[in-house]
Amino acid sequence: MADIYHEIPPRFQVEIDREKCRLCERCTVNCTYDVHSFQGERIVTRSENCVACQRCATMCPQGAISILPGKISFAPHYTYSERIRRIIYEQASTGGVMLAGSGTDLPYRVIFDDLLLDAAQVTNPSIDPLRETVETVTYLGRKPDRMFVTEGDGKLTVSRGADYPNVQLSTPIVVGHMSLGSISYNACVAILRAAKEVGTMVGTGEGGLHPDFYEYADVINSEVASGRFGIEPRYLKEIAALEIKIGQGAKPGHGGHLPGEKVDALISETRMIPKGTDALSPYPHHDIYSIEDLAQLIGALKEASRYRVPVGVKIAAVHNSAPIASGIARAGADFITLDGLRGGTGAAPRIIRDHAGIPVELAVAAVDRRLREEGIRHLVSIVAGGSIRYAADLVKVLALGADAAMVGQSVLIAMGCRACQMCHLGNCSWGIATQRPDLTRRLDVDIAAQRLANVFHAWTEELREILGALGIDSVESLVGNRDRLRYVGPNPKVAEVLGVKHAGEPWSD
Amino acid sequence: MVEVKEKVEAEVRAEAEPYVVEISALDERGEPKPYKALNEEVHRAAAAGCDVIRLRDVHGQRFLAAGMEGRVRLEVYGTPGNDLGIFMDGPTIEVFGSAQDQTGNTMNNGKIVVHGNAWDVTAFAARGGKIFVRGDGGYRIGIHMKEFRRHRPVVVYGGCVREFFGEYMAGGLLVALGLDGRGNAATHNAGREVVGPGLATGIHGGVIYLRGDVPDHYLGVGAVKRGLDERDRKTLEPVLREFGEYFDVPLELIWEKPFTKVVPASSRPYGAYYCGKLI
Question: A108-157, pLDDT tens digit by residue?
Fold first, then answer.
């Protein structure tokens, strides 16, 4: 078969300023996509291999490397866009199913950007978060059905009925499920260390937990997915929370195929499968074909963990999310994670990543409203993820009804990811989405952990700032508080589904 | 002093006879206890260091021995509910009756012996341990079993099983003998099929042995049939002997009929399935 690389114009043009270049060859060492090589007296570039990960340009001591848009234009065509033509070319060469990493890059409207926050003026004073307490502590898990107030000895005593296990988070941000396998050992350690410092929770992903990571057990949310990899007693008993993964925003309805070449000694030990074998996570859980079956697995996990930790269920945001979430709450889950259309992945079929699911903004609003209408909102906490990019999205998703936001891509970007979306190739030049030992050591754990902790601290401070401006003194009072949001987008139906008024409409008519 | 005394007593007990605790699955009104209460009693008994926990009048209580570790032995009289021994890591369970669905679900280690039938989704995603069932099984048995290092799950059904046996199988050993599964001395299969269609779809590890032949069109995608060689016999021999000892089935009777072996065509079923380097 012909070499497809030579048939298609490159996406990027890599140029070296020959005046500046001192032939140190650092670019040839750093590039993991075979762009730079030293031939004779000069560095030769193969632009057709470039993915714009920026590693070479960043590491070049002379600043001699430029990465530009491809120089050969595709004739403009709205319908058969360059992207679509490239997909057809590749499939014509390979006959394969297109795989992609990261989250969808298609220009689906980000509804967060169509929402504006309120601010306190005159009738409801704002709060100075630097002087006054603005509480960001959040609890995930079932809340009591009612409070009991008894009178005696001239005092009122308040008590709760049953107590349910909750996870305490110092800030309403949790790290989503990125397994050892999808990201490197060093990336995992950096995330765990940052989460421990900040006081939040980290998902394990469908991959089990490496023995070294148990020292962070009190911030770990163990995932139980359809492949059931790495599940051993301590994975269920020594951790902070358990989560059944039904779906993922980047690939709703899909399972997972970790190819055998990525199952090295480290992955083998974590997933508990022999080296070199494909790790297949089936599309459904084969013991869950109904809400009743789901209730059974939730019950089994609670039994196995002796009712010590909350058990959650993660679903992709899809058309029927609200009724499904109602079923999940009634099945005994303690928290529900909604992962939206723009959520990330280490690898997923492109057709699913780009075309299946709905934006998390709509799903979280619909689920929160449905559970409130049914009087069962207190049974579960809602965690929402799938492109929570920065603190503004965090605030807005809380106001739409989430108790906490789940982040993934922003975490990786904080550690150095350039979002080139080539995670599925396993050659991440930044040492994040790779298992190659020569690459994973590029990620300095101390620096990455500190950078991530910085981001979490910054978001938490920004959250406090906004809460203060809103005149709200705790995150819990923001959750589902849609009256503090206004819609400025083009589609009134969106505002209706969100339960948010249009900008210009006052609190009450 | 008290501690030392208790320790000495425990040692004496261990040498003398097993420390047996009997628990009824019925409450004082004769109603079945909720599973949570029953399991709590089982865990308490195990924590007290007993060797054998004998459960009487079990009425479908779920999740018995869920996530239990250690060497304790459970004897179950009656009918345990779904997910018997789920996530279990070590104990032995003997059921004097039939088990329901999802027996040994995601089991890590231990042993489950069922003197009746054990129906759907037995040993789902099990990584280790052994399950012996005298009688028949339902659908989706041994799905996605796997193995790792010393862990290698073994599941033997004396009777017949239905569709999707060993689907997605990634490791371990699955056996169905197609004997009369009604619990008497096993006799020859009276016209019943040992296994149903959709056999081992997506299998990429492990091995299945079926007593008798299987029509080719029963094989799922990725599964191939093979004959048995000497090594297979060596693998099967101790497993069948153990099965025979539990249920009084003579080995000669089992070997009377030739076996069929089902294995994966490849350990990399998705090797050339994907592309995606250009955009």
Answer: 999 999 999 999 999 889 999 999 999 999 999 999 988 889 998 899 98
Q: Alpha-carbon dihedral of residues B47, B50, B54, B60, nearest 10 degrees? A: 10
Domain residue spans in chain B? 54-264
Alpha-carbon distance of A481 to A16, in angstroms, equals 53
Asked if B50 and B72 touch (Cβ cutoff 8 Å), the reply is: yes
Question: Considering CB atoms only, which of B67, B151, B274 is closest to A96?
Answer: B274
**Per-residue three-class SS string for A235-303:** HHHCCCEEEEECCCCCCCCCCEEECHHHCCHHHHHHHCCCCCCCEEECCCCCCCCCHHHHHHHHHHHHH
Residue A437: both structure tokens together = 């030992």
A43: pLDDT confidence band, cut at 50, 70 and 90? very high
Cα–Cα–Cα angle for A128, A131, A136, rounded to 5 degrees: 75
Query: Which residue on chain B is closest to A425 by alpha carbon?
Result: B277
Rounded CA gap, A478 and A492, in Å?
Answer: 23
- List, by residue range, all CATH 3.30.70.20 domains of chain A: 4-96
ipTM for this prediction: 0.90
pLDDT in tens, A256-274: 877 777 788 888 888 888 8
Instruction: Evaluate whether B143 touches B167 at the Cβ level (below 8 Å).
Output: yes
Q: Does B279 touch chain A (CB under 8 A)?
A: yes
| Per-residue three-class SS string for B197-266 | CCECCCCCEEEEEEECCCCHHHECCCEEEECCCHHHHHHHHHHHHHHHHHHCCCHHHHHCCCEEEEEECC
d(CA A429, CA A65) in angstroms, rounded, equals: 16
A300: which chain B residues are within 8 Å (Cβ-Cβ)? 62-63, 66, 83, 86-87, 105
How far is Cα A127 from Cα A118, in angstroms, rounded to an integer?
Answer: 14
Distance from CA of A80 to the nearest CA of B (A): 15
Tens of pLDDT along B10-23?
A: 665 556 688 999 99
Q: What is the CATH number of domain B54-264?
A: 2.160.20.60
Q: Which residues of B touch A276 (CB under 8 A)?
A: 267
Assign A447 to helix, strand or coil: helix
Q: Which helix (H) or strand (E) holds A458?
A: helix A445-470
Domain with CATH 3.20.20.70 in chain A: 167-413+448-501
Question: Does the pLDDT of residue B183 top 70, yes or no?
Answer: no
User: Pairing mode, if any, of strands A220-224 and A241-245?
Assistant: parallel
Contact A285, A321 (CB under 8 A): no
Q: For residue A329, list its beta bridge partners.
A: none
Contact criterion met (CB below 8 Å) for B244 and B132 = no
Q: How far apart are CA B181 and CA B158, in angstroms?
A: 6
User: Beta strand pairing status for A335-339 and A311-316?
Assistant: parallel
Cα separation, A100 vs A15, in Å, equals 26
B153 Cβ contact list (under 8 Å, min separation 6): B107, B123, B126, B127, B128, B129, B130, B131, B145, B146, B147, B171, B172, B173
State whether residue A496 is helix, strand or coil: helix
The token pair that represents B188 in the structure block = 């020859």
Q: Check CB contact under 8 Å for A90 and B146.
A: no
**Which of B42, B84, B87 best probes binding to A when mutated, by most A CB atoms within 10 angstroms?**
B87
Cβ-proximal residues to B100 (8 Å cutoff; 6+ apart), any chain: B60, B79, B80, B81, B82, B84, B118, B119
**Selection from B34, B111, B31 nearest residue B75 by Cα:** B111
Q: Does domain A167-413+448-501 have CATH number 3.20.20.70?
A: yes
CA distance A242 to A300: 11
Give the CATH number of domain A4-96; options: 3.30.70.20, 3.90.76.10, 1.10.10.10, 3.80.10.10. 3.30.70.20
Which of B200, B37, B32, B102 has its CA nearest to residue A294? B102
